[in-house]
Amino acid sequence: MEEQLGKEKNTKLAPYFGLVSLTKEQATDIANTLWPKAPPVERHKAAVICAMYGLNPLMKHLYLIPFRDAKAQTHKWVIVLGIGATRLIASRKTHYSYLDGPRMMTKEEQEKLLGEVDEKRYYAITIIQDDKGNKAPGYGNWGKQTPVYGADKGNTPQNMAMIRSERNAFDRLFPGEMPQGIEVIETQFIEGEWREPGGEKEAQGRPSPPSPFKGEDFPKAEAIKNLGDLFNASQTHFKMSKDQTLKELGYSTQTAIANPGEEWRRLVALKTEAIEGNERQER
């Protein structure tokens, strides 16, 4: 750790090594020490997430990673969660086991889920069961030509699809219990990411983890044939529960939805426009 952090940071953070549950003040101290050049709002978000979910960046649960925007000559900081942190949060809720996967989906499974085979993306499935027998299928996908973070360390688009499917299964098994809107990755692909911009190990030229929404190759409206398809797609692509989906669309009950396909088209427009609007404000 001293080699990665430097002697001064290692000494300051020594009291926090081995702690899992942190107070907001402790998490803030760690975030400020690890990433002093990150925007205060991002450090605050990272600290709040750690305090709320019992996570510790020093235990490789969460990272704040700077990505250089060569065109704008600036850095954008992104919060990334290790998949191990997701498993830790789930294990605190109940005992669980993997019934299937994570694995790549077959073409037959794609046709059943999407109504067609998507040749541009990899699709994966994971099925998890808790100790009460409740089962939760999770689906994840990643563009075949979309760059992945940590490719130099062995990460692949297929692996990202499987990680997303596992996270989606946890979201379904424990609705509302997982941090939302944060990209998840295996820790081995972000080892040593304690760096600051400007150093030899700067993330210049590396692809940023994509927005949870923008750039997704969403299912066509024609593939959303019923309410189950609508809620499954919303969970897969936006990590939204059924209740959250209804609220976003302005409905109090699912019986009011007459055309799931058109509502899916409207939901995609709402979510992607929100992301683009935020990016324009940031610029």
Brief summary:
The chain is 41% helix and 17% strand. It is α+β, with helices and mostly antiparallel strands. The strands form two sheets. The chain has a three-stranded mixed β-sheet. A three-stranded antiparallel β-sheet has the order 3-4-5.
Short key terms for the protein model shown above:
three-stranded mixed beta sheet, 283 residues, single chain, alpha+beta, 10 helices
Secondary-structure topology with pairs:
Blueprint: H1 2-5, H2 7-13, H3 24-34, H4 40-53, E1 62-69, E2 74-82, H5 83-93, E3 96-104, H6 107-114, E4 121-130, E5 135-143, H7 157-173, E6 183-185, H8 227-238, H9 242-249, H10 260-282
Parallel strand pairs: 2-6
Antiparallel strand pairs: 1-2, 3-4, 4-5
Helix pairs in contact: 3-4, 8-10
What does this structure look like?
The two termini are 36 Å apart. Helix 3 packs across helix 4 (40-53) and helix 8 runs parallel beside helix 10. The protein has a domain at 211-283. The protein contains ten helices and six strands. The strands form two sheets. Strands 1-2-6 form a three-stranded mixed sheet. Strands 3-4-5 form a three-stranded antiparallel sheet. The radius of gyration is 20 Å and the shape is globular. A hairpin with a 4-residue loop joins strand 4 and strand 5 (135-143). With 283 residues, it is an alpha+beta fold.
